[in-house]
Hints:
Number of helices: 14
Number of domains: 2
Strand content: 15-25%
CATH topology of the largest domain: Malonyl-Coenzyme A Acyl Carrier Protein, domain 2
Order of helices and strands: EHHHHHEHHEHEEHEHEEHHEHEH
Mean pLDDT: 96
Strand order of the largest sheet: 2-1-9-10
Distance between the termini: 5 Å
CATH superfamily of the largest domain: Malonyl-Coenzyme A Acyl Carrier Protein, domain 2
CATH architecture of the largest domain: 3-Layer(aba) Sandwich
CATH class of the largest domain: Alpha Beta
Amino acid sequence: MTGERIGLLFPGQGSQAVGMGRDLAERFPEARAVFQEADDALGFALTRVMWEGPDEELTLTRHTQPALLTHSAAVWAVLRAQGVEAVCAAGHSLGEFSAYHAAGSLSFADAVRAVRRRGELMFEAGQTRPGTMAAVLGLDDEIVEGVCHEASSDGSVVVAANFNAPGQVVVSGDVAAVERVSPMLVAAGAKKVAALNVSGAFHSPLMAPAEAGLTEQLEAAEFGAPAFPVASNVDATPVTDPVEARALLVRQLTSSVRWTQCVRAMLGLGVTQFLEVGTGKVLTGMLKRIDPAASGRGTALGTAEQIEAYLGTRAEA
């Protein structure tokens, strides 16, 4: 694999599953150390929630976010120990914290405490001003944005929150506005509009109350310059400055996740192979929709079997 340029993709909320990472702890000492550090840093057995559930407990935002980051960090610890190096990274929503940890900006303890606090703050914002989200399939980004603008009225707002891939957008906002915009999107040509089971209107103005608390949490953490660029969810720019990174992680709470642009920015940096580091394969699946030429260049690495297969392929190259 001489000349290989690896870009790391880190999953976000929705990829979690009971049992996540347990096989890594059993197989790799590097992963086992990460899981132990998570429990120590948070002061409770996050690993019990991850490995035993129940699902209702794992899907609580305050547990989901640190669980996903911990799984990603465990996978990356194994890959790094085997000499895997990256040229850039991006993470979907909370996955951006995983990306900065992988790039050496945040220690694992600081990162897992930050996303735990982020989950609490986002949940509290959702309780203060209830909101929801819906997935929209089959419409251009600009049309979704226009319909959302038209549907935002009477003191309620809905915005395009996640640009996941061409024809795949998530909208977010006040319950009334999301309910109002759904039939409007269908009328505009959407193939499907599906409500999502979430505890708040993530990546919308409704998350503004969470900004002060996350700013405080990140200012208390040591945040260094990343060893490689991290494509920002907010504007897809490759970030290398720690001050800018901190500010963008806070802005991300109320800004759209421009995932399509993030992946294209990584391709612009010369990435020849994408590794999805952590739970599931959602981001790998999006690659072919974002760039058909990149569809065969993504590898999901979340289980011990997947990691061993990948490392075996590297050894043979």
